[in-house]
Amino acid sequence: MEDHAVRNFKDFLLLYNQLTERCFKKCVDQIQRRELDQNEVACVENCSTKFIKYNNKLMGNFVVSQTALVNKRTKEMEEEQKKLLEEQKMAEINTENSIDSVAY
Which family is it part of (predicted)? Predict the structure, then answer.
């Protein structure tokens, strides 16, 4: 569980760093000032909102597609397992028939 939490935190930091870098490059014109001006603040807010909405939509689509993929693979594995069980039963029946025919 701890590894999962660490991975989630690393993913969060990666997204945060991407957001910060992208919005800084896009919105901040003058780095000589200590404070952002109103236009830069508005730009950063719009940029970060778009980034967050985009990321949420992307993650939502990823979850949907992953769920569909997992369901498809599960169904394929169940069908393969069913096929193997049927082949095993047929092999057992053939073995029993061979033993019966030799016994008579």
Answer: Belongs to the small Tim family.
